[in-house]
Every structure is written in C-alpha cells, then in structure tokens.
Amino acid sequence: MTEKTNPIWRTIKPVFAIVILAVCTVMLFYGLKETEIELSDNQIQMKGMYGMNIDFTDVENITLLEKSMREIGIGTRTNGFGGFGSTLKGNFESERLGKYKLFVDADSSPTILIERTHDVDVYISFQDSQKTEDYFSELSKVTAE
Questions:
Q1: How confident is the model at residue 131, as a pLDDT?
Q2: What is the pLDDT of residue 100?
Q3: Which of 17, 78, 131, 137 allows an S-S link to 126, with CB 3.0 to 4.6 Å?
Q4: Cα–Cα distance, 137 to 108 (Å, whole number)
C-alpha cells in the first residue's frame, strides 16, 4: 500500500526548504560582512553581527599587536561566527587569553587589542592592514583624551 501525500504538504515542503536556504544565505552574508566601527563622544560602537558598544571609561589600554589572530591563538569559539574563510566574530576563550571577543580577519595583521577594565578584552583586525592601523590611530587619539 502506498500512502497518499496531502497536496498542501507537497506545496509547503519546497517553500519551506527555499525559506530555510534563504535565511541561511542571509546569515552567511551578514556574518562575512566586515564589522563597522564608529566612534562617538563617549564610546566605540561596533556594528554588525555580535556588535557591541565599549564606553571609553571601560578602556584600560589599546595596543596594536604586529601579529594576526591566528598567530596570537584563536582558541575555542563559545558563541560566534566562524569557519567560513578567515572571518571570526563573537565570543571565544583559551587557556592563555581567558575569555575575549573577536571581530577579526584571522589571517590579517596587525590586530588591535582593547583591554577593558570591567569586561572581556576585544580583538579587532581587518583584511586591509592599513585600515586596521588607521582605526588604531583613531582609537588611540580618542581614548587618550
């Protein structure tokens, strides 16, 4: 005996599959999109997937590390985006660095390290090393004031 499939279900299944594929594609595109950084009067705003705001009063130190995140040590992703190319965003941890947040292209150097007083440290790098250096200069000026 063969079971007859409800005609409505035959229509819904392909639509459901297309919707799931579309959502996955959008999330992949959104995750691979480079993080935008804006500086306001009192905070650093990181926009995009896993975006956040860092108050200048919470910044203990900003350092430009002449290594890529892969050279520093990526650690383990605890909640974030990664695995496609070298884009890593979200929450990570390692025995050496503890808990931290990444907004990096793992293969690009240099990397900006923002050490925070009351929260996890943040690492930032862009595929274009000059862009990373320019942001470091801006961040250094603004947080020094």
A1: 93
A2: 95
A3: 131
A4: 17
3-state secondary structure the chain: CCCCCCHHHHHHHHHHHHHHHHHHHHHHHHHHCCCEEEECCCEEEEECCCCEEEEHHHEEEEEEECCCHHHHCCCEEEEEECCCCCEEEEEEEECCCEEEEEEEECCCCCEEEEEECCCCEEEECCCCHHHHHHHHHHHHHHHHC
Sign for the pseudo-dihedral over CA of 106, 117, 66, 140: positive
Share above pLDDT 90 across residues of the chain, in percent, rounded to a whole number: 43
Distance set, CA 129 to CA 8, 11, 33, 53, 104 (Å):
54, 50, 17, 23, 11
Q: What is the pTM of this model?
A: 0.82
Dist. CA 26–CA 49, nearest whole Å: 12
At 18, which amino acid appears? Answer: I
Is the pLDDT at 32 greater than 80? The verdict is: no
> What are the structure tokens assigned to 99, written together?
């808990």
- Amino acid letter for position 82: G
